[in-house]
Amino acid sequence: MVPQPTAGPFFFGYLPPFLQFNYYMEEKIKELLEEIREFRADSKEHLEQFRIRFLGKKGVLADLFARMKDIEPAMRKDYGMWVNELKVKTEEKLTHFRESFESTDESGFEGDLTLPGEYMPLGSLHPITLVRNRIVDIFAKIGFNVSEGPEIEDDWHNFSALNFPEEHPARDMQDTFFISLDPAISLRTHTSSVQVRVMENTKPPIRTISPGRVFRNEAISARAHCFFHQVEGLYIDENVSFADLKQALLYFAREMFSADTKIRLRPSFFPFTEPSAEMDISCNFCGGKGCNICKYTGWVEILGCGMVDPAVLENCRIDAGRYSGFAFGMGIERIAMLKYDIRDLRMFSENDLRFLRQFSGI
Ligand code: PHE
Predict the structure, then answer these.
(1) Least crowded by CB within 10 Å, which of 66, 206, 231, 335?
(2) Per-residue pLDDT tens for 64-79?
(3) Which residues line ligand 1 (CB under 6 A)?
(4) Which of 232, 249, 302 to mutate to test the pocket of ligand 1 (most atoms within 8 A of CB)?
(5) How far is the CA of 267 from the centre of ligand 1 (A)?
(6) How far apart are CA 195 and CA 316, in angstroms?
(7) Same domain, 72 and 192
(8) Is residue 118 situated within a structural domain?
(9) 6 in a domain, yes or no?
(10) How high is the mean pLDDT of the chain?
(11) Are residues 61 and 154 both part of a single domain?
């Protein structure tokens, strides 16, 4: 039995001198040649490992050459030829793979660049984004710009400047997420806070819409969520009347839904508008005849609106004797649900691709 090496690249050290360069060694060198022949580098690192194994300072070839002096003089020529063959084959391999890595990119790409590209399916905009963009476009046509503000608000911008009395239930822990021990800081409950910021910093005329995410402490259901999206609008100038509000909203409803959409205003209450109203549109599913969407009334509510309360204008350093204005606010989810017949508010935030894919190409 020929003794087997137990470690290291070198195997001659384990053989008694009389066995050196015998049949066993020849076989071993053939095995090494075979290993080199079969070697395929799949990365630069892999090729470097191969180089170190054969050509490194303590590599296979260094070891074999160092043993030359121990070889029987008569055998040295043959031994030298075998080892040299190993060296040449190793270098050939290295050159081959170095060249192939140089001609490809860093990632080792070896594909055919002339082949047709792989099909990449197109994504789609989220329905909230689609509807938001549509609302922005509709109001842009009648001169409204877009304003944005922080989602974390102070009491002044979210409530006090908007005429909310101290004890108003909307400030209550039930509806508002207070984000620290400081009750003056909360997540905004509407984007009216952005309008306050605009009024504080801009001289009328003001025509702006404020889209954004808002937060309310509500139990999550098909009809309510703890966050949703709004677009609020504000128009302030001299002689702005309720008729202007009505006409702007009729225009919006017809652009958003259909040219024959009707609107209806019902008296309502908001601390920051006087008078205030809730606006319904004729049900675009049944055309006003009555269905389960409009609960057989023919009308669906879409937004709140009103004339900006003079106290709010004064809070924002706008002369209420000279200027008047209207404001309105709507939930983007609600408009999207009515436009695309979506029955559950939770769909918007579940990231279900079966739902989202239905909006591609819109
Ligand atoms: N801010 C109100 C809300 O969030 C909506 C609204 C805006 C109502 C402007 C009237 C005028 O419900």
Answers:
(1) 66
(2) 888 888 777 777 888 8
(3) 190, 192, 232, 270, 273, 304-306, 327-329
(4) 232
(5) 13
(6) 10
(7) no
(8) no
(9) no
(10) 88
(11) no
